[in-house]
Amino acid sequence: MTYPGSYIRIEKSPKNEFMYMYISLYAFIKGFDYYRPIVIVDGNHLKSTYTGTFVSASTLDGAGHILPLAYSVVDSENDAAWLWFFEQFKMTYGERENMCIVLDRNESIIKYLSRVYPTVPHFACIWHLWNNVYKKFKESHVRLSEVYFSMAKAYIQDEFDSLIEKVEKVDIRIKDYLELVGYEKWARLYAPVNRGWTMTSNIAESINSALVSARELPIYDFLEEVRKMFGRWNWNDRKEASHTYTTLGRKYQEILKLNEALSTRMTVVPSTERLHMVNDEGRNYTVCLLDKTCSCGRFQVDELPCPHAWGVLKSKFLMPEDYCSDYYKPKSIIITYEVPVYPLPDRREWNIPAHISEEVILPPK
What we know:
Blueprint: E1 7-12, E2 18-24, H1 26-29, E3 38-45, E4 53-60, E5 66-74, H2 79-93, E6 100-103, H3 107-116, E7 122-124, H4 126-136, H5 138-152, H6 157-170, H7 172-181, H8 183-186, H9 202-210, H10 219-242, H11 250-263, E8 267-270, E9 275-280, E10 283-288, E11 293-294, H12 298-302, H13 307-315, H14 330-336, H15 354-357
Parallel strand pairs: 3-6, 6-7
Antiparallel strand pairs: 1-2, 2-5, 3-4, 4-5, 8-9, 9-10, 10-11
């Protein structure tokens, strides 16, 4: 077998017509415990004779690269298709502690995700949600865009409260709408689990954009293009990880360096061995190294030292990597890509079991 350990399923109608196909390669499954369990789900229409829908589930690795988890072709974005997709996904990956799912506001997705994963929180893509606001309240949309995105990404309560007051003054209807959606669905501060930097479903949109031309192909050819693209990404990311000699993966190493630069303007006042006050341009913050927290909120959410924590670490001559999440470290990234996406042999070399070759699957109508 080319892909032992992979999870691949096909569903057909009572008339033996193709309905759904789900694929999660072992290369994706193997590294699931080595990155943050934040899953982004999205669907996009195919444009071939079979006008079905391509569905993908993906996440980010410890270097900030897109890591596919599963992909599927279904007849349409309907209730039955979403239920089937999430059932297959749960069979593949189960449920992890602090797992969450980011998606658009598609009612079918929300309904059947909640049925399959009743205890896993799901969050809105903040871009999709703001587009809904635009459709309802166009006259106030432009004036409040910057405020809304700052509010969604706020780390601390007083920052959020100050911004929501601005929204209320400009258009109380938008405040009421965002409140009705639920702050926990779109505001990082209110999320019941740590959604980190994953505030949008942009990585799913990136997958869809990379497959624009392929979506016009017949199903088999389309799926082969998807496999080859994910295989290229797997190879490139594995190669980068194996040649990473910094403390963290590239994206987060750059954030760490920026935080270090920002820390130079700060004054550190020790209170205990692990508790320090940090003055940042007139405002005081409390850093606890033992708990890896800062009253700015970033240390515990980003899971790497914020500028205030950096100031404390430098004052004590401590190494920052000891205070960063293992998710960002090269060793975790290397394990994530330990299994490659192997080439698919030529069709003439396939060894297909009899019970598979005898299966009848007709084209969809």
